[in-house]
Amino acid sequence: MTTQTDNEAVKSNDPHDINFNTEQFQLIDDDDDELLSHYISKIEEITEKCISAINTVGTSEDAGLAVTNAGLVSSHSATSSSSTCCKSRSEAESTSPLIKGENRCSTNPPSSIDHSNKKTAGRPGSKDSTDTACKQVSSDQTGMASSKVGQTDKTDTSSSVVSTNKTERPRVIIDQTGSISPLEDFRPGYLWVSDLTKQHWCEQQLLYSFTVPGVLVEDPVMTKGSNLHLQRELAVHDVVKVDITSSEDIWAVKMLNLLNSVQAFLNGSPLAREVPIFGAPFQEDVFVVGLIDELRFDLETYAIGLSELKTRLSRTKPSKSQEKQHRLQVMLYRKLFDDLVKGNVTKDVIARHLRLKLTKELGEGVQGELGKSGLSCKTLDSLLDVVFGRMAAVTCIVETSVEYVHQESGQSFLHQDVVYDEEELKKLYRHYLGFWRGQRAVEGVDIEDAWKCQRCDYKSVCEWREVKAAECARKNKLGRR
Hints:
Number of helices: 12
Keywords: Exonuclease, Hydrolase, Nuclease
Protein name: Exonuclease V
CATH topology of the domain at 16-24 and 177-442: Lambda Exonuclease, Chain A
GO cellular component, one term: nucleus
Oligomer: single chain
GO molecular function: single-stranded DNA 5'-3' DNA exonuclease activity
């Protein structure tokens, strides 16, 4: 479900692309009000275009993929001169193909930050703050169709590698005075499920992943985990590239991936992998996107089960903190899927949060892939009608579980069922949104989870640790009196 992305800067006719004028700016006198006003207006115009482009394109993961009967389709810029696709497998081996976006980084891209370079890593434009170093072809953050959509969702947040400099204090954005919220600053438009699971591990660490400058470097250990996900994905469908020309195209491809997965169940297939999912849980007006590892369909009872794949270096049981993190992830996936089945997601919610024009005609490449799936939809509006109709034809998820696989051998060694508790999920979700909305200050780990700090890449600059250390020192001092 991955596709290669062409990152070359090319001139595009996309209205959201920014084309800067090459006119030469000249020195002006302080009293030359007319010329000064002219240049100020130019700067304001360029700034507006930059903001519009960021809000529209979102992150590098936004490129979408679409599924066709010919194979999994991965989208790439229409201006790109070449496209690639995986070789077809025999029809006996393959099931319904899945289409994905191209500019997306792997969900669990390992990242190492080198502060000798002042470029900033982990900004909203890079999926899950680590997407800029990606090598996967699907795009999840911007759109949901990435082959490892939100591959970040597939990664244990405790395993990234970052080199930090004690002298460089990260900037903390949280405040309650009306300043821009972390949601708008880091994730304009929507959150990834992986953002919330990382927050569950350590909220302070999540914040530093956005604010500590550095350069992302691939981690071989993380790469192995991504490859295992890819192997399983390709066992179910092939990868095909599709040209995209707009944000609407990107999301259409993601919708097509979801649609083909569900249609495969209705056609008698028992398995779907890398299924895009989205919604606005608990009527909180915050859009969330994710990518489900695996859905299984019982052809006799029509029951659907959800399974999340986690890879581990050793055949050891995960810690309690990791189990809780993984449990939150599968519960969020289930909530998003069930909301689509129940009709709790509307076109208005999608258009408003993703800033899409649902009636805009889709590009020729996307329409071509839709045609291969037997659809004559020319707009996202009509495609969503089909998606909502198909989702209403299946049942809600009845089983959730996590599968742990040994990274070196690729063998499964542990399977844990997850008990779904919607009230618990709602309480956690609303608490986490308090951070994203800027309604409360960032929180680090509790004292009993301080062991996480020893594995954290930001421990040398962590303000939360300093505060807690000072608290402990005061308590100890009082205890001796």
